[in-house]
Amino acid sequence: MRLKIQSFSISNSQAVVSRDESLVLYEDMVLGRVFEDMCAQMYYRGKMFGFVHLYNGQEAVSTGFIKLLEARDSVVSTYCDHVHAVSKGVPPRAVMAELFGKATGCCRGQGGSMHMFSAQHNLLGGFTFIGEGIPVATGAAFSSKYCHEVLKESTPNRLDVTVAFFGDGTCNNGQFFECLNMAQLELWKLPIVFVVENNLWAIGMPHLRATSDPEIWKKGPAFGMPGVHVDGMDVLKVREVAIEAIARARRGEGPTLVECETYRFRGHSLADPDELRKPDEKASYAARDPITALRKYILDKELASAAELKIIEKKVDAVIEDTVEFADSSPLPPWSQLLENIFADPKGFGIGPDGKYRCEDPKFIEGTSLSLESCLPANHLHRCLIPSESSIRPNSIKVRHG
Amino acid sequence: MLGIVRRKVGCEVFSAMKFSLALRKVLPTGSALPMNYSTATKEITVREALNSALDEEMSADPKVFLMGEEVGEYQGAYKISKGLLEKYGPDRVLDTPITEAGFAGIGVGAAYYGLRPVVEFMTFNFSLQAIDHIINSAAKSNYMSAGQISVPIVFRGPNGAAAGVGAQHSQCFAAWYAHVPGLKVLTPYSAEDARGLLKAAIRDPDPVVFLENELLYGESFPVSAEVLDSSFCLPIGKAKIEREGKHVTITAYSKMVGYALQAAEILSKEGISAEVINLRSIRPLDRATINASVRKTNRLVTVEEGFPQHGVGAEIGMSVVEESFEYLDAPVERIAGADVPMPYAANLERMAVPQVDNIVHAAKRACYRSVPLAATA
């Protein structure tokens, strides 16, 4: 089953994006690139530490997909998540501060480089284990479907979409196959797009050596869903595929597997000496730099002038300088933060109308029944909220951190 | 052809009374829920307790759904989810493929968005295939996201030894999961525990590992009217003193509570009054109750079915050493399963799991009475 995509070649005389769209794409990719370059600088200066994995070269995939999403759509990423976060709308300041381990980070310094979460932007992580994000993404897509079918809370053909990003190595992992299978089940048909960022390398293990059948897109039809292969170094081609895949999901037609052929210009992490990849391979992909390609396209199609692009680049530089200053001057987390947020509700059952912990009421402990209202979780993403007229669950609960 | 009942979820106001009446009307015949509320105490099995708890919670909150292998059309591998598919439909009682890692992670992703999945593992031994999600995404997400995203999920299923099921189906995982900050770990014993703790687990906004026991499913326990009420709940993190005593404290959880109670009965005939604590909650552990008891009796025997090294008893022993050392009149006695993978042969299996005699002997050792004494006044 192949997705029907009209392929536009770059030599087509008419532009496939509007001027405004092209500038949004350009700015987003430049932001991603400059951000990651700054991360490298900061790492070597000791401001950033631990494991840091940079996205340089792959910006077309992130920008191509994420710029089409709405705020209510979700993105699930891997440990290489800075640019996904920034594309999704998490303020670069919050991401940089998180990388510096400061209290102003998007996770208050609790997560770090590999665990970016933002409830407000529906960015669901940041997972280190290969393949771990895929079931979580599938579950997020499941909740979208559940809200629509069971809770009757969203409009038809307007499901919230989840996009799961992961690499070529992950496509050999059990959880990948488990989720391709489940997302496409007869009763399920989940609103998810599985995006493979095939950059041909794990750390030093090349995709071809690790995989018996290296054409990943083919694994989609094996599970009954469309599988598409796209040039991941060309943001416009990625975007074309993304438009259709996201629309399919939103309409309730189910998942799509998109394999983006892309490349990382840097090593797997900042600790990787990157000695195994051949210089001519690197050079051939450097020549296909997605930012350079889009720049050329914009100028060729006269969507904007070089001067305007320069303004965008300077603006991005200023934004990144600001993020570093902000992160640098932000405070470290207070000691008390160490023990916070292990549980949403350490005492369970929250606080009763008398202002005390419910579970400390002697009647409660004896197990005699109170007409207990149970609690919604104190913190969860807002997709399915029962309307407040329902008597069973209050919509908000104050929780003390235990 | 089974009629699938699609419940129209609206803004109904449920009072306890109306609920029980409504429940009576919609239950299919042969439902596990006891129909007669008029007697002061009645007996229900642990299976019925779990089934009724699931039923009531699913009825009260449309965001609760059940997911696992054979939970739907097969009515549950151990029939815990009997009748639920007919009542709630395939959208809320989901038969999954045999993909623990996948469906545990799907549960976590759904929980991120405020749904309340109850993920059933056919046995907790199979949870090892999903342990990445239980620990790395369920337990840690609230912390990693600095409180932005909590995971109101329940992982439940039978845990520990059954009868003759061999090494790969017999392990107790209480210590494994209780080791992890971010998880709550519950171990019901009686029908009251099963009902109260499962309801608590489902309502709790954090990930709960709910360790049942296959051999207890068929056991009946008396339950009061309060327990059968649909709003009945037990607090998480509170142990129950099943039997009060003066001379030695015996802590146990799950099936071992029954053994400890039998041991206490035997001991009482020999003049040793044992206090039996049903832990109910392994994480958080009710250190206050355990220590208060040890300060009263001055002696402690911990009982568990799982492997001894780094087990629940080790933690309890240390807690008592840390908090009540001066009160101990004897070393802490630890009764646990044998430190071997579970053998198959029935006589060897019997030796690999604690028996009532082992608990009696341990209590006597703690009391420095290896020889039975005449009963004292």
Structure, described:
The complex is a heterodimer of chains A (402) and B (377). Chain A is α/β, with parallel strands linked by helices and 402 residues long. Chain A has 13 helices and 7 strands. In chain A, the strands form 2 sheets. Chain A has a 5-stranded parallel β-sheet with strand order 1-4-5-7-6, with helices on both faces. In chain A, strands 2-3 form a two-stranded antiparallel sheet. In chain A, strand 2 and strand 3 (123-124) form a beta hairpin. In chain A, helix 2 runs parallel beside helix 3 and helix 2 (59-66) packs parallel to helix 9. The radius of gyration of chain A is 23 Å and the shape is globular. Chain B is an alpha/beta fold. Chain B is 36% helix and 16% strand. Chain B is built from 14 helices and 14 strands. Chain B has a 7-stranded mixed β-sheet, sandwiched between helices. In chain B, strands 9-11-10-13-14 form a 5-stranded mixed β-sheet, sandwiched between helices. A two-stranded antiparallel ribbon of chain B has the order 1-8. In chain B, helix 8 links the parallel strand 6 and strand 7 (208-212). In chain B, helix 2 packs parallel to helix 8 (191-203), helix 4 runs parallel beside helix 5 (131-139) and helix 10 packs across helix 14. In chain B, 57% of the residues are buried. Chains A and B meet through strand 2, helix 5 and helix 6 of A and helix 4, helix 5, helix 6 and helix 8 of B.
